[in-house]
């Protein structure tokens, strides 16, 4: 039996290998400086932090360690958002079995120290956010660990920080909404046909069609995010070649639905925990 | 810093992702029932056994655990031979730094109990060997753990078993010959240009050209193994498309240079230990 942490690491690997995953690095597509092998190394590097989450370490501490290990490759940020979802899911699976309720209990239980771990994690990696403007909020995540004193002064838990980031950040929406899209996509993977990699690609497209990607919205604006999501809806039952053409188009336009990939990895983890076979 | 075990797991992942690796599953090629995702799960599943090797567990015990974990996927044998090389290499790296001498010390130090662990590992997975004939030797590996009493009666260590299997088995040759090809290929990876996945594919072709693959010789005869090796020599500096055509040809003929892939993974591990970046 694979451990919960091993299932989480495998979910990261299956996520990046699923193809086509329009706009993302996958088994058949690289970006110039962010390539498949960076994701392989990121997944392996994250393992000690995932092991910590399974052993009952605080969420913020386990997350920071996972991100630090993930960052030991030259591609930059590979799986920050995935780990933000996976760490509480692993903790919930180890503590009391994986359900929307158990993971909600884990995230609601987070502390100010967990929020500090989350901010410190930003020191390890350049997450895809624009440069810090002069008038940036005292709790802007781009401040990394510099924001910790302010965080402590205000007494904000990691759950509070996520509640503040929702609804603009799709991962934060998962945190404060019972991981609704994660479990829905896991149902789809569990019920699906074909290899686990085909199902990973299908889950990605389903999630992208379901809702505009929040990373795309942040980087290219809400209109582009809506256009990408709407195009994904039209392709849900389209021939593989059409989806592949869409994937090539997004890579060419540097449009990267990263949040959708994050939720896909979380859904793969839930499916593996439920016994979906590889 | 990744642990030695993490480097070994990453070496397994980089090995299978390197492309083209003629005749093997790689980033762009599957066999009908043995696919990329099986190798991803095999690498993750092997990790506890690799961790044991790093912590100083006996080689046979760590190997058996690694193989048992590797086998928790539906593709069958994915990385048995890789692990036979990686386990003593990880142990050597953890014990006294990785050199031909340190790994030779580890393998020469193996016991009868290690040999028993090696035989028991065959119970976990169908390794690619033909059916057991009626007159098979009492120590035929296909007997798995049934051979252990005979092994103990004869007092054979795992090193003795490997010495018996060389020169027909290329992995056994590595064991008893200071991992010569492993370190030579690691030198080539270290000195090479391009991404680590390009270097992995180059190391594979170099090793295949260097010597006929022992798995191919066992399955298709020595003549075919020589032909494949000779064709690889001609392709060492050939355009990618020619190598890709060779890869497709080998898959079509069901010719799988598995031993060469095993040594490639071991060489990638040595290169990672030396600090080659991903």
Automatic annotation (TrEMBL), chains A, B:
Name the UniProt record assigns to this protein: Triphosphoribosyl-dephospho-CoA synthase
UniProt xrefs under Pfam families: CitG
Taxonomic path: Archaea, Methanobacteriati, Methanobacteriota, Stenosarchaea group, Halobacteria
Domain of life of the source: Archaea
GO molecular function: ATP binding; triphosphoribosyl-dephospho-CoA synthase activity
UniProt source species: Salarchaeum japonicum
InterPro entries, A to Z: CitG
């Amino acid at each position: 039996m694979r451990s919960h942490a091993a299932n989480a690491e495998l979910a990261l690997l299956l996520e990046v290998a699923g193809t086509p995953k329009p706009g993302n690095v996958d088994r058949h597509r690289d970006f110039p400086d962010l390539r498949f092998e960076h994701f392989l190394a990121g997944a392996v590097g994250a393992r000690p932090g995932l092991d910590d989450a399974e052993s009952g370490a605080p969420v913020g501490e386990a997350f920071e360690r996972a991100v630090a290990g993930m960052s030991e490759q030259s591609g930059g940020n590979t799986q920050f958002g995935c780990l933000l979802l996976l760490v509480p899911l692993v903790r919930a699976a180890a503590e009391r079995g994986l359900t929307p309720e158990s993971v909600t209990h884990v995230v609601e239980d987070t502390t100010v120290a967990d929020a500090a771990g989350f901010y410190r994690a930003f020191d390890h990696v350049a997450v895809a956010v624009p440069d810090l403007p002069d008038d940036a909020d005292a709790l802007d995540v781009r401040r990394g660990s510099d924001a910790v004193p302010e965080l402590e002064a205000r007494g904000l838990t990691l759950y509070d920080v996520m509640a503040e980031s929702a609804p603009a950040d799709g991962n934060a929406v998962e945190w404060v909404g019972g991981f609704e899209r994660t479990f829905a996509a896991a149902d789809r993977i569990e019920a699906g046909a074909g290899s686990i990699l085909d199902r990973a690609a299908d889950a990605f497209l389903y999630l992208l069609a379901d809702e505009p990607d929040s990373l795309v919205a942040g980087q290219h604006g809400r209109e582009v995010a809506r256009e990408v999501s709407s195009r994904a809806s039209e392709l849900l039952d389209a021939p593989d070649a059409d989806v592949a053409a869409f994937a090539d188009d997004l890579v060419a336009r540097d449009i990267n639905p990263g949040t959708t990939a994050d939720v896909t990895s979380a859904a793969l983890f839930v499916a593996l925990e439920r016994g979906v076979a590889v």
